[in-house]
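Researcher: Please generate the 3D structure of the following complex. Treat every line as part of one assembly.
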Amino acid sequence: MHPLERLINLVALLLEARRPLTFEDIRRLMPAYQQGDSASAKRMFERDKDTLRDIGIPLETEATDAWEVDQGYRIPKDRYYLPEVAFTPDEVWALFVAAHAPGQSGEAEQAFQKLSTGTETNVLAAMAERTAAPGVDPSGPHLGAIADALARRRAVRFRYRPAQGKSGPREVDPYALVFRSGNWYLVGLDRARKDVRSFRLSRASGPVRESGDASAPPEGFDAASLLEAGPWGLGRPALTARMAFSSKVAWWAIPSAPGAIVRRTRKDGWVEADIPASDNESFVSWVLSFGADARLTGPRSIRDQVLARLTVLSREADPAEAVAVSDADHTEHA
Amino acid sequence: MPRAATRPGARAADRLRRLLVVVPYVVRHPGARLDELARLFDVGERELVEDLNMLFVSGLPPYSPGDLIDVQIEEGRVWIGMADYFARPVRLTRSEALALYLKGKALLGAPGLSEAPALTSALRKIEGGLGEDTLASLAGRVEVGAGGHVARSLALVRLAVERRERLEIEYYTAARDELTTRRVDPEHVFSALGNWYVVAWDHLAEVERMFRVDRMRSVRETGETFAPRGLEGAGRPLYSRSERDVVVRLLLRPAARWVAEYYEVERIVRRDDGEIEVTLPAKDLQWIAKLVLRLGGEATVIAPPGLAELVAEEARRTLALYPSAVRR
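Model: Done. Output below.
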């Protein structure tokens, strides 16, 4: 008998069984296990059991008598069947795009196939024709293991190479996974440093090992707050800055600031806009990054910082040239 | 059968895994076409028929004709009956669920994807809908930052990649601070560092190039199609070294240290005073000058000669936008 046939029959039998079946029951019911002696049939059964568990079938073992001498097997329906989750055609397509994004796709693809068995044929057929799915592959080899540990509340150990400094071991209680600017970060308690730290997964190396139960995040822990842009972003908005951008950069600079509102386009082509700004260095730095293609009118606190920075920078090459900045005047127009 | 007989364990497991999805699909879509099934489940038609034939002889004890799964294959279509217990697929394993969920989350991290709202709601359904031990414990523990620049032309570019259509783009090159119009044959779209990139053949320079989608000021269809040249897609380095590269050395004070993390730097030297010296290659100095400018005095140029002056010049030009603020 073909092993595939035997495996299908075994799944069907254990799924439909009303009570746990012992190996002897199974052997009596399935001719596949009647060939040869009992010991070799039992070995074959053990291998089959492992195969089913490997592919994620919840095969359970239960005692079938009060003295727990005999073991019975069954596949509980409520743990076997995929719960019904109804997706709209748009959602199915979105999942298809995700499953086919670059990177390891085997398991994501299997997940997609299971989730889409209820989808209209024509919807799926139209998808299969469209192959060019864009995406990202920031996962690296450790994402799966760390996400799994996070889901099961287990601590992890791995080697880590910080941006500066030497590679070394880390033991972390995972609190969250955060994806930012194309990288996955693990945020959690660094046990040796007794502090919440974030680790860029692409800097982890070696195997990820589990190391016991993880502690719970502290009261009020908020993974989303860790997403605040770093110095390379605009920072958390606290006030509104009035700015103007040259026509060369306005079309991409303004949409890149979440919540920006275009006010008007001037005759010279410059575009005026209100930009949600942080009240710290991040925003000053963002304004400076456009050089002579952006001008900030207010608020004055930020404008003063921008001017102070520019003054220092303009002296860099020739310290002898003195440039004085007056903070008294903010009425001029560029 | 002969092929499977050589390595029964592993192959049979793969085939079983596939059948436990194909069967529910066919049960729900009676008369599904073989060629469609083959494409959907990424399997050869012959192999699929072999697997389905295995079902003919499977079922429940005592395996009399009335107990066996009923499979009909006629004129390229399939019907399956007597298999109510396989009418629904098996649950996702946690690692399957995680693989799809995390890929979806990462995709949301590059803004501008037209599918983002549908993807967000689909992932929410997966989070809560797959049962307690699959993903439920991850709710609120996986967050995505919507940083990066919004790529308005993304949908158009993706369509062109799919249909192999030549595009005319107006492109802003930040490195040289210039806007050019060029015809490109886009072959791949992918995202990295929170931005969308296109790998394309550039007809202006007659070379293969990478373009950032958010730096395309306009995208116009040309009505022409192209034959793909087999350019490399996602996973390629974002920066490729060339002979023309200038070696830039910067001294970064603590507030500017993020540069070492964010850009591909070649060498980092840590100094006793807490400052770090980084070496990074650059094709054009224009963008490095802007970078130093944005660091607002937290970085000092060590090399190449001339860069410091470039920075100071840009600073003076910028200051000139605030005429009454400057008294000489």
